[in-house]
Amino acid sequence: MHRGRRGESARRLFARNPVLGPTAALVLAIVFFSLSTSTFFNIDNFSLIVQQSVVIGTLALGQTLIILTAGIDLANAAIAVFGTLLLTRLTLGGLPSAMAIVAGLVACTIAATVSGLLVTRIKLPPFIVTLGMLAVMTAVTNLYSTGTTFAVPNGTLTWLGNSLYLFGRVQFTMGMLLAALLFVVMWFVLSKTGWGRHVYAVGNEPEAARLTGIHIDRTLVSVYAVAGLIYGFAAWMALGRTPTADPNAYQTGNLDSITAVVIGGTSLFGGRGGVVGTVVGALIVAILRSGLTQMGIDSNYQNLATGVLVIAAVAFDQATRRRA
Amino acid sequence: MNRLTTKRRAAFVLALVSTAGLTLGACTTTKQSGPGAVGNSAGSKGPIKIGLVTKTDSNPYFVKLRESAKAEAAKHGDTLVALAGKFDGDNAGQVSAIENLVQQGVKGILITPSNSSGVLGAIKKAQDAGVVVIALDTATTPADAVAATYATDNEQAGKLLGQYVKARMGSTKPQIVAMDLDPSASVGIQRHNGFLEGMGLPLKTPDIIGSALTQGDQTKAQQAMENLLQRVGGQVNVVYNINEPAARGAYQALKEKGIANKVLVGAIDGGCQGVQNVKDGEFVATVMQFPKKMAEDGVNAVVEYAKTGKKPSGFIDTGATLITDKPVPGLASKDTTWGAANCWG
C-alpha cells in the first residue's frame, strides 16, 4: 500500500544514514529546551555544553572504533584516569610536562593494546577482557596514587583548559579544538583510507573480511592501540577541564562513553555507524543534562531520561536494520 | 563466523553491558594484615581477628581509616581483615563482606555503612553469631542496630560550617547553591540540614536557589554547577558542599565564570588537599573529621569486648574542627597550618 511503501522508504533512509535519527533528536532537544527555558539558547551555554562533552566525547571516539569492530571497551575511562595521575605525578616529580604527556600517551596506548592482544591472541570476548582491564587499571591507579588527589601545576598540563574567544565572545577551549581535530582525523581515516574500510569490514562480516585477505587480528590490535592513544589525549583534556588528578574521577566514564556511541547510532553489532554520530550522541547527553537542570528538574530524572534514550536508540537501530 | 552468531554475541554483550554496574558491585576486595591469627571465643586471651568494612578502599579517607585500624590492631598483636564495597553506595558488596567476615570467625566488625539501613539484615546475622558490630563514620538507621557508633556528628559538622558562613555573610542575604550527595545517604542529609541550622534558615528555605546531587564527585559537581550558574546567574553568594571534591568542582565552575571571589565556598571533610584549598583562599573554610580516632577507638572497643565481654554502647562523637585562616569571633577554629598537620590524606 502507498503508506506502507512510504514507511519502508523512510526506514531505508534511516538505515542508510545512521546519523539522521540522532541528528533529528539533537535538533528536537535544542528546540525544546530553547522554547521551555529562557537561559538555554545562548552562545555561552552552547560553549559550555561542548566543554562538558569534551572528555566523555573523546573517550567515546576511541570507544566508537572498538564498537565498530563489534567489540566493547569497559576500561577506557579507567585507562584515562590512570593517564591523568601519571601525567601529574611525573610532572610533580620533575619531568618536563611535554615528556610527561608523551609518557601518558604511550602508557594509555600500551594499556589498550594489551586488551587488543588478549582479544586476538587468546580469543577472549572483548567484554570480559576489558572488564578485567577495568579492575586492573582501577587498582593500579589506586596503588600509584595511594588514593590521594593531586593538584595539577599550571602550565602545559592545564594548557587545554585555556580559551580562545572568537569575535571576543564565543569561547573555545584548547581542549575543544583538540577534540575536534581528533574527530576530524578519525572521520577521515575511517572513511577515506584502506585501514578504515578494514575496520568496518572486520566488524560487519569477519569471515568475508578474512576471505578478502584482511588480517583480522592485526586490524583489531591496531584499533585498540589507536583507541588507547585517544584515551591518552582524553586524560590530558581532563586535566585542562578540572586541574586536579583524582583517582576517583570518571567512575562511570566507560558507560557514559558507550551511551554516547549508542545514542549516536553506531551499532553494538559492529560495522555500522561512525564518529559523526558519536559527536551528536555526546552532545545530546550533555544537552539533556544542561536543559533539564535549567528547567529545574532533579538529577534522578536526568539519569532516567538518558536511560530511556539509550534504549530508544538501540531499538531504533534494530528496527531499521531488520529490513535494510 | 556466520551472521547469526555475530548477532547473538553482540546481543550477549549488550545484555552484559546493562548489568555491568551490578557485576562490579558484587565484587569485594580483601586485604589482610598482621599475624595470621584465627578468632577465639569471647573472654579468652590471645590474638583475635577484627573485621573492617569500609564504603570503598580507594577514597583516602577510608585508606586512613583502614591504616589506622591496622596499626591499632597490630599494637595489640591482633589481626585486622579489611574489606570494602566496590564503590560508595555498594550495599550488596558490604553485605557479602560482612558474611565473609563472620565466616572467618572475627570477634568484631567495624563498618562504615554505605546504606544506613541496607546492611541491617547482615548485621543482625553477625550479632546472632556472637560478633560485636560497631559503626564507624556513618550511623545505621536505627542507630541501635549496632552496639555503638564512633563517628563525626555530621549534623554538628554542617552546623559549624553554617555558623561560620553566617558570620562571614553578616547582614547580606544568602543566595545558596547546595552541592549535595545522594538522596539515599544519611550523611548528606545530616550535613545539609546541619548547615542550614547553622545558617539559621528553615529546611525548605527559598534562599537555596539551586541544588544538585553530585555523589561527591568533582567532575559531576563541576558540570552541575556550570548548568546551575546558567540558570541562576551571578546572584549566588554561598556554595555549600557535601565534601571537598564536590567543592573543587564547584569552585572550578565559579572560577571559569569569573565570580569565584564573590562567592563563599565551604566544604566538609578535612583531607589534605581540601586544607590546601582553604589555604589558597579557594574555600573559605572546611570542617575536619578524624577517621584515625574512629578507627583506634573502634579497634580498642573490640579488643575490650574480646577480653572482658563488655560491649561499647551509644553514639561516641569523635569531633569536628572548623579549619579556616579567617576566624570569626565566637566560633572556635584552627588555621590551615594546624589543618595540614592533622589532615587525613
Structure description:
- The complex is a heterodimer of chains A (324) and B (345).
- Chain A has 324 residues and is mainly alpha-helical.
- Helix content of chain A is 73%, strand content 4%.
- Chain A contains 13 helices and four strands.
- In chain A, the strands form two sheets. A two-stranded antiparallel ribbon of chain A has the order 1-4. Chain A has a two-stranded antiparallel ribbon with strand order 2-3.
- In chain A, helix 3 packs parallel to helix 7 (174-192).
- Chain A starts with a helix and ends with a helix.
- With 345 residues, chain B is of the alpha/beta class.
- Chain B contains twelve helices and 13 strands.
- In chain B, strands 1-3-2-4-5-6-12 form a seven-stranded mixed β-sheet, with helices on both faces. Chain B has a six-stranded mixed β-sheet with strand order 8-7-9-10-11-13, with helices on both faces.
- In chain B, helix 3 (60-75) runs parallel beside helix 11.
- The longest helix of chain B has 18 residues, at 291-308.
- Chain B is elongated.
- In chain B, 54% of the residues are buried.
- Chains A and B meet through helix 3, helix 6, strand 1, helix 11 and helix 12 of A and helix 1, helix 2, helix 3, helix 8 and helix 9 of B.
